[in-house]
Design goal:
Strand content: under 5%
Distance between the termini: 67 Å
Structural class: mainly alpha
Shape: rod-shaped
Length: 185
Amino acid sequence: MSVAEWMGPVVTGAVGIAGIGGTVLSAVLTRRTQVEVTDAASRHALLVEKRQLYARFLRIMEDAHESAGEMREVADGLDQLAAKLVAAGELTDAVRQDLKQSLAGLSAKNESMKQALQASFAEMKRVRAEISLLADAEINLQVARAVTVMMAYAARRGEGSAVTEALVGLASVMRRDVLPGASGR
């Protein structure tokens, strides 16, 4: 057999094997690209979900902070009114009636603020549970700290500046967590 006779089938076989190898390599690379695209899409979807959840929690905290501040103002008004009652001693009927009306108005407003604050805390608790599933330990600790500081403020045992400080710290770690390319989260 001459070289020319066997060269054709050998080259055809080699080209066929190379074609099969190229097809397999192309399929492997395509699959790998699909997995990477799907993985990137999943990471992006998680970041979007976290952003929405974190923003919702921070809005609830701001609402609670505002409600607690209003409630504290009403409670301070009630305290001042009680001090006036004690200091006044003998009161005329007109003054007594005026003070009773003021007291009733402040009490009603206080109850309304208390209900709004309780609703905020209930929503905060639900969102906090969702955050605990998606966030790391640092964020969960910051969330717990912010809630504790908020509860102390609402109970008139803390300062508004402590709530602001806790919220700024929490927002900072949350923002870092949802930056594109945030590592390990």
